[in-house]
Amino acid sequence: MAQEIFKDIPKIKYEGPQSKNPLSFKYYEADRVIDGKPLKDYLKYAMAWWHNLGFAGVDMFGAGTADKHFGSKTLGTVEHAHAKVDAGFEFMSKLGIEYFCFHDADLVPEGDTLAESNKRLDEIAEHIVAKQKATGIKCLWGTANLFSNARFLNGAGSSNSADVYAYAAAQIKKALDLTVKFGGLGYAFWGGREGYETLLNTDVKFEQENIANLMHLAVNYGRSIGFKGDFYIEPKPKEPTKHQYDFDAATTIGFIRQYGLEKDFKLNIEANHATLAGHTFQHDLRISAINGMLGSVDANTGDAQLGWDTDEFPWSVYDTTYAMYEILKSGGLTGGLNFDSKQRRPSYTNEDLFYGYILGMDAFALGLIKAKALIADGRLDNFVKERYASFGSGIGAKIRDHSATLVELAEYAEKKGTVPLPGSGRQEFLESVVNQVLFQ
């Protein structure tokens, strides 16, 4: 029987907004039913294996501050990998988190050869499956780490080396095997190095075609072994590669359609990546949703004063409300909310791991509650409907049903003479509505 890692941490319970207990939920009441569905089913929270069990607070200027041994003797060993499994499932059980996400390299260190790596993965997979059976915890999605090892210095699908490309394919195959073994709902591609630094040495068309081919190969193999879930692409504009091919939601949707991947692929939208692309989180969610490609979400936030991917725990209820507003109005997620978040470097204790997740889980639970209230209030929807009312009849209706010709429109405008200003957008009023709903 595994030793208890978080001995001083109780099972985290809902105590309500008035509670001063830091190890309690103030808004996330997992079994609270709203419109016939419990909160936990709307949200489907997932633990990110890499940050929660692996990130020790290292940054470019200093060593780690957090102890992530979890009772093992040496970091980066197979023994440590087993300790992380025990710690991860204890952590999720104490928080009531029902899903996890993983990269292959998060689970166990790579071996000297691909065969050795796969053998290690098989060993750790048996441990994970046993824990799943004991706890009922499921896999939200899996993926392969195709960016950390030096072999991927030019990317995986975008690599100029056929040998590297083949190695990436082998990793994807194994990661898909594991995802199916864990009952994963999805499989994700994060193209962190699928891009270029300079056009002087790059054939963009060649690289994009190779990336798309690798994705088609993954789909074909996944379906052949019984994977029925969605494949995801996670947009990100930069970092580490200067120009990444999956810049934002719109760019990625164009890529998916250009290469015939739309039957199998949706998007995994990360909040911090959207803001790095110069958008809001809400924007990339909306663009994904209106194109029928909103699949899953990496729930985090960035720092407005820092221009890189800080992966902070989400805390702004404005952001989570706007996010859940988009998600609810799109019909929900096929995936869930993966906390691709890490505690700050000075927050290095085991308690801080829990505080981060409590913060994020509460923030999105309150965001869901307030998004439901905004929708029920109806003023935002009614305003938008009225704003476009001129397209509901007359010449506007003919524009919408594509029966109007350019000549007809020109004649209509000439006959009309002067055109008044469109109706006011009333942004300030609508923002006051949001404030009223959030704080009532």
TrEMBL record:
PROSITE patterns: XYLOSE_ISOMERASE. It is an enzyme of class 5 (isomerase). Keywords: Carbohydrate metabolism, Isomerase, Metal-binding, Xylose metabolism. SUPFAM superfamilies: Xylose isomerase-like. GO terms for biological process: D-xylose metabolic process. Its EC number is 5.3.1.5. It catalyses: alpha-D-xylose = alpha-D-xylulofuranose. InterPro entries: Xyl_isomerase-like_sf (IPR036237), Xylose_isom_bac (IPR013452), Xylose_isomerase (IPR001998). Gene3D superfamilies: Divalent-metal-dependent TIM barrel enzymes. GO terms for molecular function: metal ion binding; xylose isomerase activity. Belongs to the xylose isomerase family. This is Xylose isomerase. It comes from uncultured symbiotic protist of Reticulitermes speratus.
